Amino acid sequence: MALERLEEIRDLRLKKRQQLIAAGKPPYPSEARRTHTVAEALKNFSSLSTDKQAIMLTGRVMAVRAHGGVIFIDLHDQSGAIQLQANKKTLAEAEFSQVKALDSGDFVQVAGFLTKTQRGVETVEITEITLISKAIRPLPDNWYGLKDIETRYRQREVDLLMNPAVRSVFETKAKTISALRAYLEKEGFTEVETPVLQSIAGGAAAKPFTTHHNALDMSLTLRIAPELYLKRLLVGGFEKVYEIGRNFRNEGISRQHNPEFTMLEFYWAYADYEDLMDFTEHLLQTITKAITGNMETAWQDTQLNWKSITRQRYVDIVSDRLDLNILEEKDPNAYLEIFKREGLEAPTVRTYAKVVDELYKALVRPGIVQPTILYDYPVEMVPLAKTSLADSRIAEMFQLVVAGTELVKAYSELNDPVIQRERFEEQQKARAAGDEEMPPIDESYIRALEYGMPPAGGLGLGVDRLIMLLTNTSNLRDTILFPLLKNE
Residue 352: helix, strand or coil by DSSP? Predict the structure, then answer.
């Protein structure tokens, strides 16, 4: 809609607002009442219409169509849509004029009776109508074809209003989070809350956002993961804890990344990564079935089979693809030739763990489409995981990869405070070499481990990424109501 036309319509609506005020009819009254939602009215249409029972509905006017002495209105609420019919037989002249003055976007409260038109359309014949919120800005008439994705994100409220498919994604997200909670609570997990503002952002390798607390005069970061606090609860006597919350990482934006995202993390005393593999399979199969009604979900041009989740060793699949045994070759320089061979840019930080991870992300992960558990990683890549007793080069860790996306990361938790300090000190060498994603040593966590933490398994699941997969949504930001954007 041209800017000039938009301003003209806004001016007309502002005049209507002033006319209502002058006539003693507030355009934004506090009180609104209804006896039924639209869905309830339609579900009980037969009995309500037969008994001529009066009903009251509230909702947004999406369209107004006049046909001689009859006006038809499309009314929407969150539950659905229904047609309203206004005519001079059932409405006084003043109220009929009020109906004619309605605009798309207005909210109304209506009373009336359910009936069917001559064409068989289920309709509410209005006997009373009250404007309960005047819309000043007109709804767009070309939103469905809108190609400017940033405008859709920036005006998400309009996106939700005009596009039911968008709203469906977020309804699915709400149901999925509820299902995750129900599953974990059934399994005996306790939901907890840990700090978002932290003096040290630990539990993952990521660059944090920084802020400052004025009263305490101290620098703080937004958490990149709740992991270390959750494991301290295992020290405190909890055996199964979980948190679903927001994490914040000062990283780039892509189809799979947003600086603010939702994670599920849980920690389970006396479990190891093999227990978590079985648990993860059953959890995701249960959630997928509950949300979609099926064990297969559409993803672009293929079907994801959640019923059959395969398992492969990370060290094997990566070594095969690189044609280099990553457990034996620990010199980062040996991997630089592979970057050249594959036409890839080597990372600025060139530690062994960094170069292997970058090559995996570029050459291996994108080719994994069906749900696949990759387990057994080089110990250097997982500073918080326990070393395998069978092979000291291996960390007991796995990731679940689906459609080229890392959905789950889990491992047997390292609970030896001496080794944990050594691992943290190795991270400091990488930090000193320029890797800003490496966190400082968390002395509070080391102290907690020294009191004794039981053997445990821990898991993180990217909720937004799960919603992408369950709704066949190709961009992570389409699963976040208000993704971060540059200022207008």
Answer: helix
Residue 163: name the closest of 187, 188, 140, 192 by CA: 140
| Contact in structure between 85 and 70 (CB atoms under 8 Å) | yes
CA angle 481, 407, 280 (to 5 degrees): 120
Each residue of 373-405: pLDDT tens digit? 999 999 999 988 999 999 999 999 999 999 999
Q: 343 exposed, middle or buried (CB, 10 Å; 0-12, 13-18, 19+)?
A: exposed
pLDDT digits (tens, 9 = 90+) for 220-277: 999 999 999 999 999 999 999 999 999 999 988 888 889 999 999 999 999 999 999 9
Identify the DSSP state of 345: P
The three-state secondary structure class of 353 is: helix
Domains of the chain: 3-133 (2.40.50.140), 157-479 (3.30.930.10)
Contact between residue 127 and residue 112 where contact means Cβ atoms under 8 Å apart: yes
Count other Cβ atoms within 10 Å, centred on residue 332.
Answer: 17
| Residue 14, CB-side half-sphere exposure with 13 Å CA sphere | 7
pLDDT digits (tens, 9 = 90+) for 276-304: 999 999 999 999 999 999 999 999 999 99
- Residue 80 structure tokens: 């659905």
Q: Tell me which residue of 290, 276, 207 sits closest to 242, measured CA to CA.
A: 276
Q: What confidence tier does 203 reach under pLDDT thresholds 50, 70, 90? A: confident
Helix, coil or strand: residue 139:
coil
Q: Which of 407, 402, 346 is nearest to 369 (CA)?
A: 402
Query: What is the per-residue burial (b if ≥16 Cβ within 10 Å, else e) of 345-362?
Result: ebeebbbbbbbbbbbbee
Residue 170 and residue 160: Cα distance in Å, rounded?
9
Q: pTM for the complete prediction? A: 0.91
Residues in the chain: 488
Dist. CA 262–CA 165, nearest whole Å: 21
Please compute Rg for the chain using Cα positions. Answer: 29
Q: What CA–CA distance (Å, rounded) separates 194 from 242?
A: 10
Return d(Cα 121, Cα 115) in angstroms, integer. Answer: 8
